[in-house]
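**Reference record**
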Amino acid sequence: MLSGEEEKHAPFAERWPRSTKFTLSACAAAVAELVTFPLDLTKTRLQIQGEAPVRSYEDARRGTVPYRGMLRTAAGIVQEEGVLKLWQGATPAVYRHIVYSGVRMVAYEHLRDSVLGRAADGSFPLWKAVVGGMTAGAIGQFFASPTDLVKVQMQMEGKRKLEGKPLRYRGVHHAFVKIVSDGGVRGLWAGWVPNVQRAALVNMGDLTTYDSVKHFLLLNTSLQDNSVTHSMASGCSGLVAAVLGTPADVIKTRIMNQPRDEHGRGLLYKSSTDCLFQAIQGEGFLSLYKGFVPTWMRMLILPDHDPGRLLGLWSSGSPMNKSEELLELLHFKNA
């Protein structure tokens, strides 16, 4: 603890470590979001494409869909809607990161210090870091779910315009207002169940796989604990996270994008389970992995170094142990 005089003259980052950490983390995550957002938009379009309940008779008869694959989808968006439409829905995506990062950070630190607790030697075991990371990620995703809802629906506005359908929203503020007016405050949390499931699964897959792969490489190969090892472990953890999280992400996207009646009830799906069964029955099991490639690529492109050390976010005091560093290392990738 700093004395009164020392605190007065100390840098802002030392006087307000959590505020500084949150601000810089949110800014870094927002920049990463903007850089990789075209992949997210492409993923959303692929997940909606060929949706069994809304396929037209002609598409069903011919077995055709507008685009096949990530590259053709992205190229089609640029050709038909313009380059800037690759960032349609980026504003609520940035809002989401601010909410998600803040809630997740506060929730994790509370779980670590007050619920799970450290070991007698002051360390924090990996299994507790995984449990804490999954729980904090799920809590953060729940609070950020309204921004995810607006993001998904705005990402599909360009497609609606091409299909001759009326646009639903004039902007982010209008989207929030209209959703509340149509379905009440509860309507903002449409699709929150698969959204929270996705966050928990991604956190679990990323945290456990990264540590396991890294230790395997160090013990069974000549690789050293350097950036190459970290990159390989990060790539594997991103793959596992994408495999675990993509099905829930597909269900979430379809639940959030479906049309609703005057009371805010979905017209295509009664629940997440109903959406799951309709997708498998109408499109096959692999439909649950639509958008898998851009999902995995996005995880690979996001920073695989430790953003906390890079930005100088460590608060004063004893250094974090390996489990806490691991959670910080994967902070942005899980978002």
